[in-house]
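QA checklist item 7 of 12: single-chain prediction sanity check.
[x] sequence parsed
[x] length recorded as 272
[x] structure emitted
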Amino acid sequence: METINAFLKMINEDLDYKIPVNALISFIDPDTGKFLCKMALDFLKSQTSRSTLTVLHFIDENKAAEIGDIEYYKNDFYSDIIELYEKEQLLIRIFVKVSTDHVADIVEIKEKYPCNLLLIGVEHEAFPTFWKEGYPRLENSVAGDLTTAIFVNHGFRQLNRIFVPIVDQTDVYVFLFINRLIVHEKVSVMIWDAIGIIESEPEMKKLYQYLYKKSEGRLALWNNDKKIGNDYIAEQDLVLIGAEGWEKLTSSAVSWAHSLPSTLIVKPVTNE
């Protein structure tokens, strides 16, 4: 209950978007990066003007040689993103950087431009190596002082249908993300409460009912009497899950656990 209460406190404090979010996004694939920039816009919207986005687009030397004028490339490629952020009166910084050590560069930028949310874009094929090698090193470097979210791009095209498995108590933290994403009229969210926490914890039930009303019915609970099939999972645009829950899910006997679409794996701040 202590973990749940701590997360609920953070979520409830942000239900009206009063907490400024300073996000850092890092990625290699430009299309992945553009999606994250657009998604981050929802996270950054607040009743304050202090939210900021720092973008770290990694390239290698061959790509740099192909691009030539990096400053021109940056301003041209991200012109639509810059326009979006200017329209919302949000500060955006964009860096296109030749890098041989992504983790070190992320830490360097984080120290220069402090953030409380780190979004990392990883292609599906590269994710296993990143999760085993890069992510533990990154976690040691940031020392749990900010929320991290890894976007695993597995053919992402649109954001209409989000599937949210709750298989560990710490997964309730993703409700903070649901709160920010559900405002879009095109977005619907299905929650699979595998551990029954929404029904068993009054405050969780209250939070769910609040978000259901806010979503105008685009938030729903999966009927646990029904089996979740591979076909249903394949129809989803995004799976949103906590890091502990993701570990449990992918090590379980659930048939569809290894056939997930694009996935956002969230690990909350641990040092408050």
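[x] summary fact logged: The longest strand covers residues 52-59.
[ ] second reviewer sign-off
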